[in-house]
């Protein structure tokens, strides 16, 4: 494949990683823990979408919207059932709980929908041809969604009252409560967004990767790598890191055997982290926005 | 927000608090009347911070009751500020990566206060602590301890509380800066603000307060007006170097 085609697929892959990485970022900033179920939330989103499609809903944009809403609600439940009960027992307890729920999601998905990936329709099958370049409408849609999400989050966190409350609650929960910020609600919003974005990613990526299957762990790993590469504590950082990771992976795959790509990328990540321990965007002390 | 109410503005009755097996407060009775400045002194580990957080509505007592303006303290910690309680926490607890101005503005988060009113309140705080005026856009983490303490007090004032609860505001400050902070507190008190001051520095606390409590191992062991406290043998030997 040509460099330019690989760039297109790399950007799409990176955009999907970015949606996963944003979940890592939101959860990390709000609670200080890493949520290892992040990738499996994507799979759940894809499978929920599949169920809707099988019910006869064939407007995939509508499916995506419904799955996003379902994801937001699931995120609130996730916070209440998985995070809240464990958070007074320290970070390790919470992280262990996310690993547990990761297995519940993965195996639960297999039990309900079967272990194999299922074909899933894209929003649009067409291809846009600009001179030599061919870009699928599905790729375009994924890019637009990620750009929209990035702008939306920047506005939410940087400009809105809720966003200021979230940043304050993440920085110092006790002080936030003292000034009247409902810290539990802010945390619930962060988990809702993390799950919602992952579920949305699930519907968008399913036409490429199939819905369901065993990709959850890989997505967790890639989303996490992208987030750490850019700087886990920076919104901008995790998006750039994740997109960069997707592009590098795709381009590398053209020149070296597939099985070398992951090891090389991860070694590169370690080197980056040795030089810049807070990631590419972590040089300055980071804020949520 | 002043409600014409009988009885104290803030009242703890038999307040109990535990950290797991550790009993930090073992039934504390304490009250602050409207317009009064009350201090709590006591050694390290006496339970002063725990008391400040219960009084500020940030922790819920395991036993006993806490009343504000005659009504029970709200269950949710973030609702205390709406009841006229301002907490200045031990160790200042600023929103570190934010500017002075943002910290102060976050002080009026709860009421969704209109921008013009926020500006007015900012002005008042800057008048009280003039050093903050030129530092409005500085990140608080790069400020001196004294300046940070002023931001912490200012942030609590932004909600226009009826009572200000301060947990060791002099901690780590030079005598000069401590003096500036306490001058501001004195001015606020003259303006009618009620104050609950937690302090290890007893002479300093006695200058500001009308009444006081000595807390030890989670219990009030001495209480009275400042004259009574200054006369008390326990207080004199342990806190006034007599
Ligand atoms: N989070 C906690 N977990 C367990 N024990 C605690 C916790 N916080 C306080 N304690 C214990 O409760 C008791 C009272 O603590 P508190 O911080 O209220 O005391 P203090 O009077 O404010 O002390 P200091 O003067 O050092 O600030 C102490 O014995 C302390 O060790
Ligand atoms: Mg203390």
Briefly summarize what is shown.
The complex is a heterodimer of chains A (289) and B (242). Chain A is mostly helical and 289 residues long. Chain A has helices spanning 3-31, 38-54, 60-83, 91-113, 137-159, 161-171, 173-178, 183-209, 216-230, 235-255, 258-275, and strands spanning 127-130, 133-136.
Account of the protein in words:
The complex is a heterodimer of chains A (289) and B (242). Chain A is mainly α. Chain A has helices at residues 3-31, 38-54, 60-83, 91-113, 137-159, 161-171, 173-178, 183-209, 216-230, 235-255, 258-275; strands spanning 127-130, 133-136. Chain A has one domain. Chain A has a two-stranded antiparallel sheet with strand order 1-2. In chain A, helix 3 packs across helix 8, helix 9 crosses helix 10 (235-255) and helix 10 runs antiparallel to helix 11. The radius of gyration of chain A is 18 Å and the shape is globular. Residues 285-289 of chain A have low confidence and may be disordered. Chain B is an alpha/beta fold and 242 residues long. Chain B has a domain at 10-92 and 161-239: P-loop containing nucleotide triphosphate hydrolases (Rossmann fold), CATH 3.40.50. Chain B contains 8 helices and 10 strands. The radius of gyration of chain B is 17 Å and the shape is globular.
